[in-house]
Amino acid sequence: MKTSDFYYELPKELIAQTPVEPRDSSRLLVLDRKTGDISHEHFYNIIDRLNEGDLLVANDSRVLPARIYGVKEETGARVEFLLLKQISGNRWETLCKPGKKAREGARFSFGDGILRAEVAGVRDDGNRIVDFDCDENFFATLDKIGQMPLPPYITEELKDKERYQTVYSHELGSAAAPTAGLHFTEELMDRIRAKGVNIAYVTLHVGLGTFRPVKVDDVTNHKMHSEHYEIPEETAGLIRRTKENGGRVIAVGTTSCRTLESVATQFGEIKACEGFTDIFIYPGYEFKVLDGLITNFHLPESTLIMLVSAFAGYDKIMKAYETAVNERYRFFSFGDCMCIL
Length: 341
Hints:
Elements: E1 27-31, E2 38-42, E3 55-59, E4 61-63, E5 67-72, E6 78-88, E7 91-97, E8 107-110, E9 115-122, E10 128-134, H1 138-145, E11 171-174, H2 186-194, E12 198-204, E13 227-231, H3 233-244, E14 249-252, H4 254-267, E15 273-277, E16 292-296, H5 303-312, H6 314-326, E17 337-340
Parallel strand pairs: 1-17, 3-12, 3-14, 4-11, 14-16
Antiparallel strand pairs: 1-2, 5-6, 5-8, 6-7, 7-10, 8-9, 9-10, 12-13, 13-15, 16-17
């Protein structure tokens, strides 16, 4: 299977630049993965597609305001830092632009000096190992001066940082939002619970590798990035009981999907655990947990459109994407949603 098989034409104006208000007013394309039938609704209608005894599994990771702008202490040169991964304490793997100004030993200050940094090393891939120092809590300081690391296809400024967080985000650590969850409001979630549908959480900290293009012609030669996940005992128990009672387990987003399928693949069951996953799901993969998937519309030739093609079937997904383009759906992170059941 070739990467080019997952290409589709997308007019630039369909790439959503801003989120809709309220969150649950986005459009919803519902795809029946058995018949391929498609219907067009709004996200607040998702409750009508859920049954008593079903279980939604969502990713509660919270996005770091990980893009910060500072100046080099020696020269005053302006440099952009993007925090990628916490190594230990205030030591982070960081992407620096321009990199030539961030050689080992270089020192920087941010936010009029409330945050300081020194480059401790340079990795083979060009990323920097950076030690940060601040007077207050590091994450509180980051919240004051940091900007959301929006995907490169979003060029408009985000006025409210919380609109790139889910309403249930809790565990700080992602470099990008688990965007399928952006459509939920607290009120809608209350209505869903009142219907007898359970909601459980996993944590998978989304890395910037989620935007990394597939550069190989043969899909099977692509190497996925690794991301940290955690499944608490409460969630594992709810999944087991839902399956035993004949309910459906429906993942909110590809990150929740990858977490569940990673654990089921590794252990043969869902259990409380944490670790790292680089699972790559593409057509031919046999799903072990999922009965449904709520997901946004993904980039052409991305690992995410490959994942949804594996779940719903390649032909059905490509037809659904063609329909979404023709119907002028909004695409990608701040775009509309698809429900596959």
